[in-house]
């Protein structure tokens, strides 16, 4: 299963990058994350950053341990999570859009090394793909709202 979503944010790329890489505070920004605990913080950079996040998915609390596997400053980072034989990969990327806006793109894929899990996943994908897309779109919408509100608050306090 592969899903790509994107949203334009009225903010410079550097501000969007700063927000999406502030992993320890993502629970304040993304309403779907109920709890987040950083497990490992690398001395520098993002690669190796590992955390556990708790979300409510399909009516149940779900914990996932995720880590950043690849990153290019102010461009993108890739994460990986593994659970019950499934491998989840996602990429968050920022690019310049019109009028000093930023395009935030998220790509998500789920695969498996197990034939059984692949077969079950193929059947389940038909049912959960729409829900996953909705969840990812909500995450990006939450990020947009958070960043644009932060900019509005900062500009109001300058007046």
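-> sequence recovered:
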């Amino acid at each position: 299963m592969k899903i790509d979503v994107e949203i334009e944010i009225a903010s410079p790329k550097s501000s969007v990058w700063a927000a999406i890489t502030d992993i320890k505070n993502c629970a304040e920004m993304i309403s779907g994350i109920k709890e987040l605990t950083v497990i490992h913080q690398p001395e520098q950079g993002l690669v190796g950053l590992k955390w556990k996040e708790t979300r409510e998915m399909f009516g149940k609390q779900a914990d996932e341990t995720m880590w950043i596997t690849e990153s290019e400053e102010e461009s993108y980072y890739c994460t990986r999570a593994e659970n019950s034989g499934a491998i989840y990969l996602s990429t968050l990327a920022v690019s310049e859009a019109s009028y000093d806006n930023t395009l935030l793109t998220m790509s998500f894929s789920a695969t498996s090394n197990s034939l059984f899990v692949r077969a079950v996943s193929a059947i389940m994908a038909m049912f959960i793909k729409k829900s996953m897309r909705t969840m990812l779109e909500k995450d990006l919408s939450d990020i947009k709202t958070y960043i644009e509100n932060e900019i509005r608050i900062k500009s109001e306090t300058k007046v």
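The helical segments are 13-20, 26-29, 115-158.
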